[in-house]
């Protein structure tokens, strides 16, 4: 229902994004909690109100509220961590790696859902924000926990399509205000 509303909002030039929303989310091989948690976490990270609203509504039809809350928590903590760890890496001075973060990150240890699912959502958000350090760290944790490369790949596909939809709708909103 709300996924259909999101697809209907796509302009003609974004036909591929519209079709990918249906195929990537509609036929995902991920369990529902991983699928909808990934979609919600990425929607938060992508910062488009319409995409976020529609995907939270769709997720709420398939998973319990605590999954939606944990997915939003994954996006929130990664918004902080991606900036912090990417910046330390980009500075290029190894001495920064020896300095403690001293940032509160307790939600990672107790996310309120399966920790593997939370890691997957953190990986997807890191893909959107472009933090290579976080991508590498979360991928290693997921693989160590037994998730396949195909599962990681599926989360990356969802991240790409949801972000593409958000960028498209944000562009259309900006152009409508001109």
Characteristics:
9 helices, 178 residues, globular, AhpD-like, 0% strand, mainly alpha, single chain
The run of helices and strands is HHHHHHHHH
Number of domains: 1
Reading off the top of the CATH hierarchy, the class is best stated as Mainly Alpha
Pairing-aware structural class of the strands and helices?
mainly alpha
Number of strands: 0
CATH architecture: Up-down Bundle
User: Measured on Cα atoms, how large is the radius of gyration?
Assistant: 16 Å
Q: State the helix count.
A: 9
CATH topological fold name: AhpD-like
Give the CA-based shape: globular
N- and C-termini, Cα separation: 31 Å
Largest sheet: none
Mean pLDDT: 95
Q: Which percent range fits the helix content?
A: over 70%
Measured by DSSP, the beta-strand proportion falls in: under 5%
Organism: Allokutzneria oryzae
Domain Carboxymuconolactone decarboxylase-like: 95-176
InterPro entries: AhpD, AhpD-like, AhpD_core, CMD-like
Subunit structure: Homotrimer.
Structure described in brief:
The chain is mainly α and 178 residues long. It has nine helices and no strands.
Can you put this structure into words, describing what you see?
Its EC number is 1.11.1.28. 75% of the residues lie in helices and 0% in strands. By secondary structure, it is mainly alpha-helical. The protein has a single domain, classed as AhpD-like (Up-down Bundle). Helix 2 packs antiparallel against helix 9 (149-176), helix 3 (32-46) packs across helix 5 and helix 5 crosses helix 7 (115-129). The protein is globular and about 50 Å long. It starts with a helix and ends with a helix.
């Amino acid at each position: 229902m709300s996924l259909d509303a999101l697809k209907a909002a796509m302009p003609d030039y974004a036909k591929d994004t519209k079709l990918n929303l249906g195929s990537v989310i509609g036929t995902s091989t991920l369990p529902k909690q991983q699928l909808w948690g990934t979609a919600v976490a990425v929607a938060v990270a992508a910062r488009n109100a319409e995409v976020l609203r529609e995907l939270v509504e769709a997720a709420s039809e398939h998973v319990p509220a605590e999954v939606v809350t944990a997915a939003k928590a994954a996006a929130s903590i990664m918004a902080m961590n991606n900036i912090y760890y990417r910046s330390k890496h980009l500075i290029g001075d190894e001495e920064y790696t020896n300095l403690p973060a001293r940032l509160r990150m307790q939600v990672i240890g107790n996310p309120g859902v399966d920790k593997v699912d939370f890691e997957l959502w953190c990986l997807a958000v890191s893909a959107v924000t472009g933090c290579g350090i976080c991508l590498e760290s979360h991928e290693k944790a997921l693989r160590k926990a037994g998730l396949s490369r195909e599962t990681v790949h599926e989360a990356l596909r969802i991240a790409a399509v949801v972000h593409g939809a958000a960028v498209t709708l944000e562009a259309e909103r900006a152009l409508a205000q001109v």
